[in-house]
Amino acid sequence: MFKGLITEFKKFAMRGNVIDMAVGIIIGAAFGKIVDSLVKDVIMPPIGLLLGKVDFSNLFVVLKSGVTPPPYASLTAAQTAGAVTINLGLFVNAVISFVVVAFAVFILIKAINELQAKIDRKEAASEAKSETKTKVCPYCCTNIPLHAVRCPHCTSQLSADNTLSENNQ
Question: What does the alpha-carbon distance between residue 35 and residue 23 come to, in Å, rounded to a whole number?
């Protein structure tokens, strides 16, 4: 029973969609770290500077003092003292991270949709091109190759201009 379970698990784990999902999760986690660094290290410092040298990661409200009485120089100091805080700066960072990720996903989906539309247009053009390679037999009304001189269905003799020849009229 245990050996069968292991075999079944191997089958499940090696299916393509499970592996694709695992790769997606790994890349997503790495992308999340990049976005987090982008927000904390690139976007927020200039915004904080513009707003009067505010460090958003240290923007917090003390709800209950800790062992050491306030004021606390940083969020880390407040947490070390055991203070209960509302971490507004971390929330703002998380919201901006979400917006950056959502925008990146939007751009990715937009590019995929444009690529899919281009492929669909090529397929439609190819189908339209292949449709013009046939003509309708005027006698039996079936599609036949454009350059056919005899209908393979009803064996009528056709002239080059898609009409019945004088022999069949």
Answer: 18
Structure tokens at 43: 């976007």
Instruction: Supply 62's token pair.
Output: 């003390």
pLDDT value, residue 166: 46
Strands (E), the chain: 61-64, 84-86, 134-136, 143-145
pLDDT digits (tens, 9 = 90+) for 24-71: 899 888 888 888 888 878 887 888 788 777 677 788 999 999 898 889
The token pair at 90 is 């971390």
DSSP string for residues in 65-93: --SSPSP-SSHHHHHHTT-EEE-HHHHHH
Does this model's pTM top 0.85? My answer is: no
DSSP code of residue 56: G
User: What are the structural domain ranges in the chain?
Assistant: 134-169
pLDDT attached to residue 19 = 77
Q: What is the chain's Cα-based Rg?
A: 35
- % of residues, the chain, pLDDT over 90: 15
Helix (H) and strand (E) counts in the chain: 5, 4
Yes or no: say if 85 and 62 are a contact pair by the CB < 8 Å rule. Answer: yes
